[in-house]
């Protein structure tokens, strides 16, 4: 079954088209990585799925239902940003619970979900702290926690680790992979980092200039790149 389907998706900003007809079926429960050089359209594509950008042409289906015009909060998706986007004046706990309470989840249900996310992410000692009192990795964990509490249909990550140093990036990669195993949720993860793509993905989608150049399982792409761009980008032997 497909969690998300893109059919001939296009995006223009003014007169300039940046996504030129993307077709893709995102299978339920799989970890997808959208990879490609800076400016190829990864964020734009993800933001259209999330509902943060209008779709210029084509159809977006979530669970088989056309969602082009459904508002972001009603798509059942949760996005994690590179910049964390935490509320500076709120504690860790409040950052996680705020969005849920706003959308009408009861106080008790919210508390249970936050406690679950805190447990999964091992944030117990930090729940009363404000973002300024956290390290980069801890802030990113809180941002992921805020996605977890929503019990989303799918998680969308836009370069969530690119502000972290190399060592922490490796550790967070492992944590996100473990989260995927534990929850079994569909995840789409955007990065320009080939190593992240190769190590994290069930499926890699290589984007170039607003088009899907090739997609498939990491080893398939590595062993059978369809062209030099994919080979070069994935790091296949020539
Ligand atoms: P990536 O995330 O792969 O680096 P983006 O999706 O951010 O790429 O950008 C894809 C293309 O769309 C780029 O050429 C970028 O300049 C353009 N673009 C993105 N957002 C806007 C915008 N709000 N207005 C105009 N052009 C944009
Ligand atoms: Mg981007």
UniProtKB/TrEMBL annotation:
It is found in: Cell inner membrane. Coiled coil: none annotated. Signal peptide: none annotated. Residues 4-234 form the ABC transporter domain. Keywords: ATP-binding, Nucleotide-binding, Transport. One of its GO terms (cellular component) is ATP-binding cassette (ABC) transporter complex, substrate-binding subunit-containing. GO terms for molecular function: ABC-type maltose transporter activity; ATP binding; ATP hydrolysis activity. It is a peripheral membrane protein. Its main location: membrane. Belongs to the ABC transporter superfamily. This is ABC transporter ATP-binding protein. The lineage of its organism: Bacteria, Pseudomonadati, Pseudomonadota, Alphaproteobacteria, Hyphomicrobiales. The chain holds residues 1 to 238 of 361 of the full protein.
């Amino acid at each position: 079954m497909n969690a998300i389907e893109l059919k001939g998706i296009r995006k223009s900003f003014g007169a300039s088209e940046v996504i030129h007809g993307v077709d893709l079926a995102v299978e339920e429960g799989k970890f997808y990585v959208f990879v490609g050089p800076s400016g190829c359209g990864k964020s734009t594509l993800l933001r259209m799925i999330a509902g943060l950008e209008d779709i210029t042409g084509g159809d977006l289906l979530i669970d088989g239902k056309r969602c082009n015009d459904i508002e972001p909060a009603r798509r059942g998706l949760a996005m994690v940003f590179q910049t964390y986007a935490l509320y500076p004046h709120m504690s860790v706990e409040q950052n996680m619970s705020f969005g849920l309470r706003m959308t009408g989840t009861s106080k008790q249900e919210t508390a249970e979900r936050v406690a679950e996310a805190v447990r999964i992410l091992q944030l117990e000692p930090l729940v009363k702290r404000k973002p300024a009192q956290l390290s980069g990795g801890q802030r990113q964990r809180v941002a992921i926690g805020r996605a977890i509490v929503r019990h989303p249909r799918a998680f969308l990550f836009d370069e969530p680790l690119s502000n972290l140093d190399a060592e922490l990036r490796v550790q967070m990669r492992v944590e996100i992979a473990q989260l995927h195993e534990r929850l079994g949720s569909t995840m789409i993860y955007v990065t320009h980092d080939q190593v992240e793509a190769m190590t994290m993905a069930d499926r890699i989608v290589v984007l170039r200039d607003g088009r899907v150049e090739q997609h498939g399982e990491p080893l398939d792409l590595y062993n059978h790149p369809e062209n030099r761009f994919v080979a070069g980008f994935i790091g296949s032997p020539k």
